[in-house]
Amino acid sequence: MIVWITLITYLLILKLILGKLTSDQKRKKFLLISSIPIILVMGLRYPHYGVVYDLEVYYSFYNKSIELPLGLLFKSTRLEPGYVLFNKLLATIIPWPQFILFAVAIICVSAVSYFIYKNSRDPFLSVIFYVTLGTMMFQLTGFRQAIAMSICLVSTEFIKKKELLNFLILVFLACTFHKTAIVFFPFYYLANRPKTLIHNFLSILVFIVSILFAGSITQFGNELLDMNYGKYIGNKWGGLVPITIYVVALILSGINSKKIDDKLTFNMSFIGLTIYCMRYTTLALERISFFYTPGVIILLPNAIVKLRNIRLRSVLYLFAIILAISLFIYRLNSSEIGAYRFFWQ
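-> C-alpha coordinates emitted (345 positions)
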Protein backbone atom coordinates (compact mmCIF):
# COMPACT_ATOMS: atom_id res chain seq x y z
CA MET A 1 0.00 0.00 0.00
CA ILE A 2 2.87 2.38 0.76
CA VAL A 3 3.97 2.40 -2.89
CA TRP A 4 0.51 3.44 -4.12
CA ILE A 5 0.22 6.16 -1.48
CA THR A 6 3.70 7.41 -2.39
CA LEU A 7 2.61 7.64 -6.05
CA ILE A 8 -0.43 9.74 -5.16
CA THR A 9 1.70 11.94 -2.87
CA TYR A 10 4.21 12.43 -5.67
CA LEU A 11 1.48 13.63 -8.05
CA LEU A 12 0.15 16.09 -5.45
CA ILE A 13 3.63 17.49 -4.73
CA LEU A 14 4.40 17.76 -8.44
CA LYS A 15 1.27 19.86 -8.92
CA LEU A 16 2.25 22.12 -6.01
CA ILE A 17 5.72 22.63 -7.49
CA LEU A 18 4.52 23.37 -11.04
CA GLY A 19 1.54 25.49 -9.95
CA LYS A 20 -1.18 26.31 -12.46
CA LEU A 21 -0.83 24.27 -15.65
CA THR A 22 -2.00 27.06 -17.92
CA SER A 23 0.74 27.06 -20.56
CA ASP A 24 1.22 24.32 -23.13
CA GLN A 25 4.79 23.84 -21.94
CA LYS A 26 3.70 23.27 -18.33
CA ARG A 27 0.99 20.84 -19.42
CA LYS A 28 3.50 18.77 -21.36
CA LYS A 29 5.99 18.94 -18.52
CA PHE A 30 3.47 17.77 -15.94
CA LEU A 31 2.23 14.89 -18.10
CA LEU A 32 5.76 13.73 -18.86
CA ILE A 33 7.04 13.92 -15.28
CA SER A 34 3.87 12.33 -13.87
CA SER A 35 3.96 9.49 -16.42
CA ILE A 36 7.40 8.20 -15.43
CA PRO A 37 6.57 7.05 -11.86
CA ILE A 38 3.20 5.62 -12.98
CA ILE A 39 4.99 3.50 -15.58
CA LEU A 40 7.58 2.41 -13.04
CA VAL A 41 4.97 1.44 -10.46
CA MET A 42 3.05 -0.54 -13.08
CA GLY A 43 6.16 -2.19 -14.52
CA LEU A 44 8.03 -3.11 -11.35
CA ARG A 45 5.16 -5.15 -9.87
CA TYR A 46 5.46 -8.74 -8.74
CA PRO A 47 3.73 -10.86 -11.45
CA HIS A 48 2.84 -14.02 -9.49
CA TYR A 49 -0.18 -13.16 -7.35
CA GLY A 50 -2.52 -15.89 -6.18
CA VAL A 51 -5.83 -14.25 -7.14
CA VAL A 52 -4.78 -11.91 -9.95
CA TYR A 53 -4.80 -14.74 -12.48
CA ASP A 54 -4.58 -12.70 -15.73
CA LEU A 55 -1.23 -11.21 -14.78
CA GLU A 56 0.33 -14.65 -14.35
CA VAL A 57 -1.12 -15.77 -17.71
CA TYR A 58 0.38 -12.83 -19.62
CA TYR A 59 3.72 -13.18 -17.86
CA SER A 60 3.84 -16.90 -18.73
CA PHE A 61 2.85 -16.22 -22.35
CA TYR A 62 5.72 -13.77 -22.74
CA ASN A 63 8.03 -16.44 -21.34
CA LYS A 64 6.62 -18.85 -23.91
CA SER A 65 7.20 -16.24 -26.62
CA ILE A 66 10.89 -16.25 -25.73
CA GLU A 67 11.15 -20.02 -26.12
CA LEU A 68 8.86 -20.93 -29.04
CA PRO A 69 9.08 -20.03 -32.74
CA LEU A 70 6.21 -17.92 -34.07
CA GLY A 71 4.42 -20.83 -35.78
CA LEU A 72 4.28 -22.95 -32.63
CA LEU A 73 3.38 -19.88 -30.58
CA PHE A 74 0.25 -19.32 -32.68
CA LYS A 75 -0.71 -22.99 -32.38
CA SER A 76 -0.30 -22.92 -28.60
CA THR A 77 -2.82 -20.16 -27.89
CA ARG A 78 -6.18 -18.65 -28.84
CA LEU A 79 -5.03 -15.12 -28.09
CA GLU A 80 -5.55 -12.50 -30.78
CA PRO A 81 -2.86 -12.39 -33.52
CA GLY A 82 -1.83 -8.80 -32.83
CA TYR A 83 -1.05 -9.59 -29.22
CA VAL A 84 0.84 -12.76 -30.18
CA LEU A 85 2.99 -10.89 -32.72
CA PHE A 86 3.53 -8.06 -30.25
CA ASN A 87 4.83 -10.49 -27.63
CA LYS A 88 7.05 -12.38 -30.08
CA LEU A 89 8.60 -9.17 -31.37
CA LEU A 90 9.33 -7.86 -27.88
CA ALA A 91 10.54 -11.24 -26.62
CA THR A 92 12.99 -11.47 -29.51
CA ILE A 93 14.46 -8.08 -28.68
CA ILE A 94 14.19 -8.25 -24.87
CA PRO A 95 14.03 -11.88 -23.60
CA TRP A 96 12.99 -10.92 -20.07
CA PRO A 97 9.38 -11.79 -19.10
CA GLN A 98 9.08 -8.88 -16.66
CA PHE A 99 9.39 -6.54 -19.63
CA ILE A 100 5.82 -7.24 -20.74
CA LEU A 101 4.62 -5.34 -17.67
CA PHE A 102 6.79 -2.36 -18.64
CA ALA A 103 5.73 -2.52 -22.29
CA VAL A 104 2.01 -2.48 -21.49
CA ALA A 105 2.55 0.29 -18.92
CA ILE A 106 4.40 2.46 -21.46
CA ILE A 107 1.68 2.00 -24.10
CA CYS A 108 -1.22 2.63 -21.71
CA VAL A 109 0.22 5.60 -19.84
CA SER A 110 1.46 7.23 -23.05
CA ALA A 111 -1.94 6.86 -24.74
CA VAL A 112 -3.83 8.19 -21.73
CA SER A 113 -1.41 11.12 -21.36
CA TYR A 114 -1.89 11.95 -25.05
CA PHE A 115 -5.67 11.72 -24.62
CA ILE A 116 -5.46 14.05 -21.60
CA TYR A 117 -3.14 16.50 -23.36
CA LYS A 118 -5.47 16.79 -26.33
CA ASN A 119 -8.72 17.11 -24.39
CA SER A 120 -8.36 18.08 -20.72
CA ARG A 121 -8.52 21.61 -19.32
CA ASP A 122 -6.94 20.34 -16.11
CA PRO A 123 -4.26 17.66 -16.74
CA PHE A 124 -3.57 17.25 -13.01
CA LEU A 125 -7.16 16.37 -12.15
CA SER A 126 -7.35 14.07 -15.19
CA VAL A 127 -4.21 12.18 -14.14
CA ILE A 128 -5.54 11.83 -10.58
CA PHE A 129 -8.80 10.43 -11.95
CA TYR A 130 -6.92 8.11 -14.32
CA VAL A 131 -4.97 6.62 -11.42
CA THR A 132 -7.83 6.46 -8.90
CA LEU A 133 -11.15 5.92 -10.70
CA GLY A 134 -10.48 2.52 -12.25
CA THR A 135 -8.86 2.90 -15.67
CA MET A 136 -5.30 2.37 -14.46
CA MET A 137 -6.32 -0.45 -12.12
CA PHE A 138 -7.89 -2.36 -15.01
CA GLN A 139 -4.74 -1.86 -17.09
CA LEU A 140 -2.70 -3.54 -14.35
CA THR A 141 -4.07 -6.96 -15.34
CA GLY A 142 -6.16 -6.85 -18.55
CA PHE A 143 -3.20 -6.47 -20.89
CA ARG A 144 -4.80 -7.29 -24.25
CA GLN A 145 -7.83 -5.11 -23.71
CA ALA A 146 -5.68 -2.40 -22.10
CA ILE A 147 -3.62 -2.12 -25.28
CA ALA A 148 -6.77 -2.15 -27.41
CA MET A 149 -8.29 0.58 -25.21
CA SER A 150 -5.14 2.67 -25.58
CA ILE A 151 -5.25 2.46 -29.37
CA CYS A 152 -8.92 3.47 -29.33
CA LEU A 153 -8.14 6.50 -27.17
CA VAL A 154 -5.55 7.65 -29.71
CA SER A 155 -8.06 7.08 -32.54
CA THR A 156 -10.37 9.76 -31.10
CA GLU A 157 -8.09 12.42 -32.59
CA PHE A 158 -9.00 11.14 -36.04
CA ILE A 159 -12.67 11.52 -35.16
CA LYS A 160 -12.07 15.20 -34.41
CA LYS A 161 -10.15 15.59 -37.67
CA LYS A 162 -12.86 13.65 -39.57
CA GLU A 163 -10.29 11.19 -40.90
CA LEU A 164 -12.43 8.06 -41.15
CA LEU A 165 -9.84 5.83 -42.81
CA ASN A 166 -7.19 6.48 -40.16
CA PHE A 167 -9.78 5.92 -37.43
CA LEU A 168 -10.82 2.60 -38.98
CA ILE A 169 -7.21 1.46 -39.32
CA LEU A 170 -6.48 2.14 -35.65
CA VAL A 171 -9.64 0.47 -34.34
CA PHE A 172 -9.00 -2.53 -36.59
CA LEU A 173 -5.51 -2.69 -35.12
CA ALA A 174 -7.07 -2.58 -31.64
CA CYS A 175 -9.26 -5.55 -32.60
CA THR A 176 -6.15 -7.61 -33.33
CA PHE A 177 -5.23 -7.19 -29.65
CA HIS A 178 -8.72 -7.72 -28.23
CA LYS A 179 -11.65 -8.52 -30.51
CA THR A 180 -14.12 -6.64 -28.29
CA ALA A 181 -12.62 -3.38 -29.59
CA ILE A 182 -15.21 -3.80 -32.35
CA VAL A 183 -17.58 -1.91 -30.02
CA PHE A 184 -15.60 1.27 -30.69
CA PHE A 185 -16.28 1.39 -34.46
CA PRO A 186 -19.69 3.16 -34.09
CA PHE A 187 -18.14 5.93 -32.02
CA TYR A 188 -16.93 7.70 -35.17
CA TYR A 189 -20.57 8.62 -35.82
CA LEU A 190 -21.73 8.87 -32.20
CA ALA A 191 -18.94 11.11 -30.90
CA ASN A 192 -20.41 14.34 -32.25
CA ARG A 193 -24.01 13.77 -31.17
CA PRO A 194 -25.35 17.22 -30.20
CA LYS A 195 -26.34 17.77 -26.56
CA THR A 196 -29.82 18.95 -27.51
CA LEU A 197 -33.08 18.05 -25.78
CA ILE A 198 -34.23 15.71 -28.56
CA HIS A 199 -30.88 13.95 -28.81
CA ASN A 200 -30.70 13.57 -25.03
CA PHE A 201 -34.20 12.07 -25.05
CA LEU A 202 -33.21 9.60 -27.77
CA SER A 203 -30.05 8.71 -25.85
CA ILE A 204 -32.04 8.00 -22.68
CA LEU A 205 -34.41 5.84 -24.75
CA VAL A 206 -31.47 3.87 -26.13
CA PHE A 207 -30.12 3.58 -22.58
CA ILE A 208 -33.37 2.02 -21.33
CA VAL A 209 -33.69 -0.34 -24.30
CA SER A 210 -30.05 -1.45 -23.89
CA ILE A 211 -30.62 -2.34 -20.24
CA LEU A 212 -33.81 -4.27 -21.05
CA PHE A 213 -32.18 -6.28 -23.84
CA ALA A 214 -28.69 -6.65 -22.33
CA GLY A 215 -29.00 -10.45 -22.24
CA SER A 216 -29.85 -10.68 -25.94
CA ILE A 217 -27.09 -8.22 -26.81
CA THR A 218 -24.61 -10.35 -24.87
CA GLN A 219 -25.72 -13.50 -26.67
CA PHE A 220 -25.38 -11.77 -30.05
CA GLY A 221 -21.89 -10.56 -29.11
CA ASN A 222 -20.86 -14.06 -28.05
CA GLU A 223 -21.94 -15.49 -31.40
CA LEU A 224 -20.34 -12.67 -33.39
CA LEU A 225 -16.98 -12.77 -31.61
CA ASP A 226 -16.91 -16.47 -30.69
CA MET A 227 -16.76 -15.65 -26.99
CA ASN A 228 -18.46 -17.02 -23.92
CA TYR A 229 -19.56 -14.12 -21.73
CA GLY A 230 -22.06 -15.56 -19.27
CA LYS A 231 -24.95 -13.99 -17.37
CA TYR A 232 -23.26 -13.84 -13.96
CA ILE A 233 -24.16 -10.45 -12.46
CA GLY A 234 -21.94 -10.41 -9.36
CA ASN A 235 -22.59 -8.05 -6.44
CA LYS A 236 -25.61 -5.90 -7.30
CA TRP A 237 -24.20 -3.00 -5.24
CA GLY A 238 -20.70 -3.26 -6.74
CA GLY A 239 -21.10 -0.72 -9.53
CA LEU A 240 -23.01 2.02 -7.72
CA VAL A 241 -19.99 4.25 -7.03
CA PRO A 242 -18.71 4.27 -10.65
CA ILE A 243 -22.26 4.84 -11.93
CA THR A 244 -22.63 7.79 -9.54
CA ILE A 245 -19.35 9.27 -10.80
CA TYR A 246 -20.41 8.95 -14.45
CA VAL A 247 -23.84 10.47 -13.75
CA VAL A 248 -22.35 13.42 -11.81
CA ALA A 249 -19.86 14.09 -14.62
CA LEU A 250 -22.64 14.06 -17.23
CA ILE A 251 -24.89 16.34 -15.15
CA LEU A 252 -22.10 18.86 -14.46
CA SER A 253 -21.16 18.88 -18.12
CA GLY A 254 -24.80 19.37 -19.05
CA ILE A 255 -24.99 22.38 -16.72
CA ASN A 256 -21.95 23.88 -18.42
CA SER A 257 -23.01 22.95 -21.94
CA LYS A 258 -23.47 26.58 -22.96
CA LYS A 259 -19.94 27.50 -21.92
CA ILE A 260 -18.01 24.41 -23.04
CA ASP A 261 -18.46 21.88 -25.78
CA ASP A 262 -17.18 18.49 -24.71
CA LYS A 263 -19.34 16.51 -27.11
CA LEU A 264 -16.77 13.79 -27.68
CA THR A 265 -16.07 12.99 -24.03
CA PHE A 266 -19.71 13.62 -23.05
CA ASN A 267 -20.93 11.05 -25.58
CA MET A 268 -18.04 8.74 -24.73
CA SER A 269 -18.97 8.82 -21.03
CA PHE A 270 -22.68 8.38 -21.75
CA ILE A 271 -22.05 5.30 -23.88
CA GLY A 272 -19.69 3.99 -21.20
CA LEU A 273 -22.39 4.51 -18.56
CA THR A 274 -24.98 2.72 -20.71
CA ILE A 275 -22.80 -0.35 -21.27
CA TYR A 276 -21.60 -0.32 -17.66
CA CYS A 277 -25.19 -0.43 -16.38
CA MET A 278 -25.74 -3.55 -18.48
CA ARG A 279 -23.43 -5.31 -16.00
CA TYR A 280 -26.53 -5.96 -13.92
CA THR A 281 -27.58 -8.44 -16.59
CA THR A 282 -24.12 -9.67 -17.56
CA LEU A 283 -21.15 -8.65 -15.41
CA ALA A 284 -18.73 -9.24 -18.28
CA LEU A 285 -20.18 -6.22 -20.09
CA GLU A 286 -18.49 -4.08 -17.44
CA ARG A 287 -15.21 -4.88 -19.22
CA ILE A 288 -16.67 -3.80 -22.57
CA SER A 289 -17.66 -0.44 -21.09
CA PHE A 290 -14.00 0.30 -20.34
CA PHE A 291 -13.46 1.27 -23.99
CA TYR A 292 -15.66 4.30 -23.28
CA THR A 293 -15.48 5.06 -19.56
CA PRO A 294 -12.04 6.79 -19.80
CA GLY A 295 -14.03 9.69 -21.21
CA VAL A 296 -14.93 10.61 -17.62
CA ILE A 297 -11.30 11.46 -16.74
CA ILE A 298 -11.68 14.34 -19.22
CA LEU A 299 -15.36 15.21 -18.83
CA LEU A 300 -15.39 15.57 -15.04
CA PRO A 301 -12.31 17.86 -14.71
CA ASN A 302 -13.52 20.03 -17.61
CA ALA A 303 -16.95 20.38 -16.03
CA ILE A 304 -15.50 21.27 -12.61
CA VAL A 305 -13.00 23.91 -13.76
CA LYS A 306 -15.64 25.67 -15.86
CA LEU A 307 -18.12 26.15 -13.02
CA ARG A 308 -18.96 29.86 -12.80
CA ASN A 309 -19.15 30.05 -8.99
CA ILE A 310 -15.52 30.29 -7.84
CA ARG A 311 -16.18 29.13 -4.27
CA LEU A 312 -18.26 26.15 -5.44
CA ARG A 313 -15.61 25.29 -8.00
CA SER A 314 -12.84 25.32 -5.39
CA VAL A 315 -14.82 23.22 -2.92
CA LEU A 316 -15.86 20.72 -5.57
CA TYR A 317 -12.31 20.54 -6.93
CA LEU A 318 -10.88 19.66 -3.50
CA PHE A 319 -13.77 17.32 -2.68
CA ALA A 320 -13.31 15.45 -5.97
CA ILE A 321 -9.61 14.86 -5.24
CA ILE A 322 -10.25 13.66 -1.68
CA LEU A 323 -13.12 11.40 -2.75
CA ALA A 324 -11.17 9.91 -5.67
CA ILE A 325 -8.13 9.14 -3.50
CA SER A 326 -10.34 7.69 -0.74
CA LEU A 327 -12.10 5.44 -3.25
CA PHE A 328 -8.73 4.33 -4.61
CA ILE A 329 -7.42 3.40 -1.15
CA TYR A 330 -10.66 1.57 -0.34
CA ARG A 331 -10.39 -0.50 -3.51
CA LEU A 332 -6.75 -1.31 -2.83
CA ASN A 333 -7.62 -2.55 0.66
CA SER A 334 -9.94 -5.13 -0.87
CA SER A 335 -7.57 -6.13 -3.67
CA GLU A 336 -4.49 -8.33 -3.72
CA ILE A 337 -2.78 -5.68 -5.84
CA GLY A 338 -3.04 -3.27 -2.90
CA ALA A 339 -0.30 -5.18 -1.08
CA TYR A 340 2.31 -3.96 -3.54
CA ARG A 341 5.36 -6.16 -4.10
CA PHE A 342 8.31 -5.49 -6.40
CA PHE A 343 9.14 -8.26 -8.87
CA TRP A 344 12.38 -9.14 -7.05
CA GLN A 345 10.61 -9.70 -3.71
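Residues 192-306 form one domain.
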